[in-house]
Structure formats: C-alpha cells, structure tokens
Amino acid sequence: MTVSTIKKVFPYPIQQVWNLMTSLDTYAWRSDISEIKVLDDQKFQERSLDGITTTFTITKKEPYRVYAFSIENKNMSGSWEGCLYDTDAGTQVIFTEEVRVKKFYMKPFIKGFLQKQQETYMQDLANALDKQG
Asked: Would the pLDDT of 85 be above 90?
C-alpha cells in the first residue's frame, strides 16, 4: 500500500471550500478530468484526460469536516480522505490517499504519481476558490 498526504491552508471559509470540493456537478475547475458521471447518491466516476475511468464510492461525508471514498480503476484500488479544519487563517485541508497498484511494474512510480495528482488538485482548488473570491 502506498500512502501520500498533502496539506494546505486556503484563505476562504470552510463552507466555500467544502461546497466546491463536494460538488459533483461543478468540475470544470479540475484540469485533470474530462467528465464526472454520478451513478447514484454514493457512487460516481471520473474520466481522466487520458481516458481512464475511476469509480469512487463515498464512505464518509460529514459536512465541513470529512469527505472520504474508496477508489477503483484498472490500475489501482484504495481510499481517499479529505479532512477540513477551520483556522484563523482560513480552511486547512489534509488529503490522504492510500492505494495498491494492480500491475507490479507500476509500483516504483505510484508515489510520484499520487503526489503529482494531489498537487494538481490543490492548485486547481486554489485557482477555483480565487475565482469565486
């Protein structure tokens, strides 16, 4: 199992950060996906720009606190958890992703892939929040 965690503080209210993170209808701000398809109230799929479909099953959703789900695609399976904290500086988010690769040759590259993916998401989130003001 490979684990990657990233932390960041956004100078915006926790409700604003939460609403953007959890909206499955508003994803144009994400630079790394081409589509989100809602399957039911607990499952959705994201299609990456390179055509890989990942299925997410929501395992925990505590408004303004925790958003978590399991992850499954042809290359990996695992979990993702996003925790939000109200601070004097705004909203601190901590994202932790744990994955197991399905193809042995991917193992040496997965940590770097996860870190890049998390950094892209954080930058996209920051840009979208800045646009909202």
From this structure: yes
